[in-house]
Amino acid sequence: MLKIENLHYNVTENGKIKEIIKGVDLQLESDKIYVITGPNGSGKSTLVKLIMGILESSEGKIYLENEDITTLSIDKRANLGISYAFQKPITFKGIKVRELLDIASGKKNNVGQICEYLSCVGLCAKDYLDRPFDDSLSGGEQKRIELAMALSKGGKVNIFDEPEAGIDLWSFENLTRIFASLKGATNIIVSHQQKILELADKVILLRNGKIEKIDSYENIKSTLSENKCGKLK
After folding, report:
1. Which of 1, 68, 74, 75 has the fewest CB atoms within 10 Å, measured from its CB?
2. Taking the CB of residue 206, how many other CB atoms lie within 10 A of it?
3. Closest CA to 7 of 76, 65, 70, 64
4. CA R_g for the chain
5. Tens digits of per-residue pLDDT, 162-208?
C-alpha cells in the first residue's frame, strides 16, 4: 500500500513561490489500477515524480507499506520496489536489452525468460536480445521494452507516465493485457486516454494541484466531459 499525506511541491519563479502540488492526500492499495487524469498543468506528472523521488517534496509524507520513504533517494525507492516508466524512455548507450532486463529483474535471466517478457509486449527476443537500448530503436520499441522491464521487475508500485505516448497501434491495443498482468502491485497511470481510463479501479481527477475527485470511471466520466479535463480519445 502507498500512502501520501499532505503532499506539497513548490517552485520559485521570478522571486515568487508557486505551488504546483497543494496538499494531496492519497491511499493507494495493492492489486489495483489507478489512473491520474486532469487538465494540462494540473500537476499529474509532478505528483508521480514526487512518488518516485525524482522531485523532492516541499512538505508532506510518503509511505510504502507503512515505511516513511519521503527522504529516500530514487535508487533506494527502486530497491524497495517502485518503478517508473517515463513518457519518453531514457536510453543507455552501450547497454543491451538483455542487460536492462537483468538489471530490472535483479537476476540473470535465461533466454526463455527474456523471450517471455518481450513477447508480452509484442517483440521477438532473437531480434532484440543483443540490441543496444539507444536511439537506434524507435520510440515505440523503446516504450515496449520499458514495459517489459516493468513486467520483469515485479515490483510493489508501478508508475506509468502517459504510457500511450509515441507507441504504435499494436502496443496501445495490448496495454490492457499488459497492465492486467501486473498483479499484486499498486499500478499508477497518468493518462487522458479513454481506453486506459476504463481500465482503472479508481480514476483520480487532479486540478490545479489538488485532488478534485476519486471514483470509478463510470461515475466520474460525466465530470471529465463537463469540465473538459483532457481529450478523451
Report:
1. 75
2. 23
3. 70
4. 18
5. 877 666 655 666 766 777 677 788 999 999 888 889 889 999 999 99
